[in-house]
Write a structure and sequence with these properties.
The structure holds 3 protein chains of 3 kinds.
Chain A (H helix, E strand, L loop, with lengths): L6 H28 L13 H32 L16 H32 L13 E8 L2 E6 L12 E4 L1 E5 L3 E8 L4 E5 L4 E5 L5 E6 L4 E7 L12 E6 L1 H18 L16
Parallel strand pairs in A: 1-5, 4-10
Antiparallel strand pairs in A: 1-2, 2-3, 5-8, 6-7, 6-9, 9-10
Helix pairs in contact in A: 2-3
Chain B lengths: L2 H15 L38 E4 L3 H10 L4 E8 L5 E7 L4 E6 L4 E8 L1 H14 L1 H4 L35 E2 L1 H10 L13 H12 L15 E2 L13 H13 L14 H8 L15 E8 L2 E5 L15 H10 L15 H18 L3 H11 L2
Parallel strand pairs in B: 6-7
Antiparallel strand pairs in B: 1-5, 2-3, 4-5, 8-9
Helix pairs in contact in B: 3-6, 5-6, 7-10, 9-10
Chain C lengths: L12 H6 L4 H31 L8 H5 L9 H37 L7 H21 L27 H29 L12 H33 L6 E3 L3 E4 L2 H35 L6 H14 L15 H29 L8 H24 L1 H7 L3 H31 L1 E2 L2 H27 L19 H31 L1 E2 L56
Antiparallel strand pairs in C: 1-2, 3-4
Helix pairs in contact in C: 2-4, 2-5, 2-15, 4-5, 4-6, 4-7, 4-13, 5-6, 6-7, 7-8, 7-9, 8-10, 8-11, 8-13, 9-10, 10-11, 11-13, 11-14, 13-14, 14-15
The chains are: A alpha+beta, B alpha+beta, C mainly alpha.
Amino acid sequence: MSRDQSHPRARRALAALSLLPLLAAGVAAQEAAVVERYGPGPAASTFGEPFQYLFWLITTLVSVSFAIVLVLLLVPVLRDRARPGHKASYDHGRSLHDKRFTAVVSVIVFVVLDAWVLVVAMADLRDGYWKIPPPDAPGVLKVEVLAQQWAWNFRTPGVDGEFGTADDVLSTNQLTVPEGRPVSLNLTSKDVIHALFLPDMRLKRDANPGAVNVAWFEATRAGEFDILCAELCGYAHYQMHGKLHVLDQGAYDAWEQEASRLAVAAFDTEDTEAHWAWAWQE
Amino acid sequence: MNAPSLLLAGMALMAGLLPTPRASDEAHGDTAGLPPVHGLDARAPIGVPLEIDAENWLRAPGEDWFAARAEQEPGRFTYVEELLDAGGEMVGGWKDAQGEFALRYDEDEEEVAYWQRVGADRLTRGRRDFVQFCASCHGFEGDGAGRSGMALRPPPRNFQQPMFKFSKVPGDFLPSDDALVRLVQRGLNGTPMLPWALSDEQLRDILQYVKSLSPEGQGWRDVYIEIQDVVESGDDPWAGKEAEGIARGEEVYHGVARCHSCHPGYVTPARLAEISGTAGEGRPDLSYPVAKATDKYTVGGHPMLLLPPDFTWHEVRSGTELRDLFETIGSGIGGTAMPKWKDSVPDADIWAMAHYVRHLIDQYKGKTEARAAFMAGLRK
Amino acid sequence: MSGDHIHPEPTTFLRKHVFSFDHKVIAKQFLWFGMLWLLIGGVMAMMIRWQLANPGQPVPVLGALLFPRTGGVIDPASYNMLFTMHGTIMIFLGLTPVLIGCFGNWCIPLMIGARDMIFPTLNMLSFWTVFLGGMVGLWSMFVPLGASEAGWTGYPTLSTTVGTQGTGETLWAVAVFLIGASSIMGGINYITTIIRLRAPGMGWMDMPLTVWGLFFTAVLNVLFLPVIGSAMLLLIMDRVFGTAFYVPASLLTGGSGGDPILYQHLFWIFGHPEVYILILPAWGIVADLLSFFARKPAFGYKVTVGAMFAVTVLSAVVYGHHMFTTGLSAMLGESFMLLTMIISVPGEILFFNWLHTLWKGSLRLTTPMLFAMGVIFVFGLGGLTGLYLATISTDIFLHDTYFVVGHFHLTMAASALFGAFGATYFFFPKMFGRMLDERLGKLHFWTTIIPLTVVFSTMFVSGYSGMPRRYYDHTSADYLKPLQHLNVLTSVAAFVLGASQLIFAWNFVRSRWWGKKAVDNPWEIGTLDWSMPTPVPHYNFKEIPVVHTGPHEFSHPALKGRDWIPQTEKLPA
């Protein structure tokens, strides 16, 4: 028994609905005025461009698809409303034509939405995230990351390039790396699972207790960036943040000299409990 | 063509397209060859106790403290004539709103002191919050041997040894509750001791529990000990004439106070000779700090080596506001080689040093090139 | 009457209303139970949103009651409890009882022409087990140190005694285990009933799609709940008996012992099928409702069934997309990426069939129909954003940010909940003999879908801007401070969304006892359940019906004077 399909009410409802885009636009404008940043900010690593491209590719594909769905949803709402004398078409969609049409659309959707993205993503992965530089390659900076509740402990090998020596540079929540050189990371945790999130570098990797994860990145510009934790690790998960300092080559070398020197000054040979370096994992 | 074979075909295609994954792509790499880190081999205890059955009597500040507080915060403490002590005797003394304080005469020690009664329910709440918020680093027994605190330097405080570095209470005195609350609420820069988002009530309950960890006859169970507030700072005499303060600070730092015997010296050897009036005072590595051992804090049974901060490089743990710096310099750092300067030099000189240190931080800390240039100038 | 009743008519109050074997009573028990827990979970969500928009501010009204020691402010540990219990409650104690417990129980026997489920005792047990699970969950909130704080996913070692002391976490695992057991019982019942008790003439391809959705859900339940049951058992053993399933022997040096990643595999082997468990009944209901209210056969019935089947089969082999950042090998990662994209294809086919069902129909825009179409909207939006998360190189950035939160709320919460709302408005007349107010229903729909879209679309923006999830306070980190206004917008819209559910609550309670009396078949539907009188007698069918027609025979050209036909009648030649 259709109850509310009389046209004047439908027209009023539609008129009310058409205010929605205006409302949405108003909300968006208000937000644009007060929100200081939409989006993650300009990337600062070699992962940035591929990420940007892929993100916008997916956004375009998804937006077009959703727009099509909305149109196909709205047309029957506007055109096929029940009214006296109006009959629905009787169609089970069982015909061969219908089945073929379904199949063709599915293939097109898979190829356009999925396969295309898949191909681009796989290239990104093999040329990017998974292309971990071999540890003995020249210019690679190795960093051991020991996560804990609720801080990041970073260890770099210092001027002598070896872990476990007096000049290892240790730092809490501050990581200094050079620009333009690959930085290889070994991540583990003292207690629960954490995740190192470097949003400007577009990098995230879990730090698991009892195992070492390997990741890498290469910074493309100097500056100060943020380190966040991205795996629930207890009540102070939100406070587990730090700063990533990227220095240009010359400044980094000078910094490393000084940092190693100060590390040697603080080093206590007898305090074996504090020497937490591990053999580098590839 | 059915779904399963399509799926298998897809997977075969994938496998064919893939290069052999490198060993580095596998998770759970073998971590053998690492030194066992004490404590990390222990699994977390099951069924940690969460209940304290007995009330505790803990040391409270003395008569002067109460009198001063009553003046400054009228209504917080009241003096009553009929206060029952723990032995049931009537003595006069100070009470707070909860009636928790009492004067007690300790017959063995023949000493009269203020004690605070902390009820079992309050200790239980404090214990539970401690387990929830603090035990991961400070250990379930408050001994600093928490799992997350392993290998941390500086290590987490061991509360079974009632001594604090950064409470800003002068010398060997114990900090008052207010001083402890301040310490926890502000955290320690550059360490995992963050400014935790705990309410005042939660913090005070936790602190009563922490205080109850004092061994018998020590800390808050020591009848002789004195409890004090954060060292008094007064007004900054150099406000409005900062440049003079900084200059005076440089003189005191490298002169009377000889801070450069531990911390870096931030002047050239020539300037140092000028300030101190003698030549050859500087160490060869004047612009680097010198680590000092302290047997008040031990790790693994031997004295801990502490590096005094280089203000242009390291974090100053206990705050970098001028008043914070005054308080740290004035009260010293308990148990370490950093002495208390209050009453050893005039307050104005301590403020001057605070200005000077703050100047160093502002000018050079975090400014790689400026600092490098400055240090190069000192080391010529 | 022909044949025996499956069970005799109850006489005592306890047998009629408490320990009933009647699937219709059990359905209502599940409904009230689920709605109560949805309310609790919803209030928790409101508190979470309050804290995020106003960090460190006391919660109005509830704050003084629930958080006296902090002056009404939610402290970080309690905040973690809130989002943990919110997730656990909404999924296991809210959606599952309503969608699967209530509508599974109500629809299956009535739609297939049976007098009751094939195992009525097991059915009753399944309700009381989930009830017990709920009680254990409630108990966990009152133990020292409070309820679980390790997220509804409960990853070790945070959920072992390494990360969490106290009995709350253990009780959480027990509650999940019990609720899982309840769903397994239900699943066994549903599968066997559908296979064995279909009325003569009710072939597999003559069942309403609601039954198909519930059938596949039941299959997934039976297959995968044991996996999470075992995951929980191992966790309980680690917490109580000090075993080392998830705890490495040495936290730094690894070595022999447990592996926290084991839990993640176990959890997600269940966890991914779980999201399909929650959505399949909604898909079935939506497919039916669209046909019913477009007065048009469901387009591509067999293809729809096939798509649901494909999703069911594939659901187990896509779970690794939750673990892309844990350090999976490249080959595993790529396989999961490919399979996750493949599983989107049957979903897309469903959309195609739904939209085609509407196309050239004769649409009756009743409240159930609005919610069914609402599912197309929210699942379209949410499902498409899954593509970002299926793709590893974008997921590396978006994992554990609000992007994921927006995605799964749209696909799991909004879509499943809209399916549940649609079903509630639809079945209410038969369940309770009265109509839910249509105007309030439409108001409920619009005041739900608009703020809902704002809330979760804003989360996509927050997540893309790098805002991690499960954070107590986003203003603590410099990187996130500029995004705080997004939190405020999300929360304001969330408060509106929460408030508008009161419209539904009011409508439900009022109509239940004082609503307009319903005729036997107010929507003019031909499925067997609507051929029953209202209230449905405890034996359902006096005589087991013989089925001659499919469930979606609307607007057949040969039908005269009406556009529908009961399944017991033959189509005119």
